[in-house]
Amino acid sequence: MKLTKAGAVATVDEKRRIALPDGLCKELGIYPKDQFEFLVADGRIFMARHTPTCLICDDDCDVKKVNKTFLCGECRKILWEHQGFARLFNKDNFPNIGENLPNGDFKDGLKLV
Fold this sequence. Notes:
Shape: elongated
Distance between the termini: 33 Å
Largest sheet: 2 strands, antiparallel
Number of strands: 4
Strand order of the largest sheet: 1-2
Order of helices and strands: HEEEEHH
Structural class: alpha+beta
Number of domains: 2
């Protein structure tokens, strides 16, 4: 990985916030509500787009938002096969969610977002 200077300097405000320059946001496709994580190495701070990982196995492949958490395809499949979705994501616990399952069927009030 080669680091290059972006040509902009930002100052930390009283609430310890840093505003990203408009030009940099446009160049990198950064929009309001985008999530980033901070990495630290050798006294330097790096910022990277946040990639959600599975709540169960911590994998980042085929991760989808399920209600208020993230699950990978394999864990969704295992939970579904073992009736885990019916227990974890039923309409009694989540009355306002939809009914769209990973395979397109409709059952038990699971919503993938």
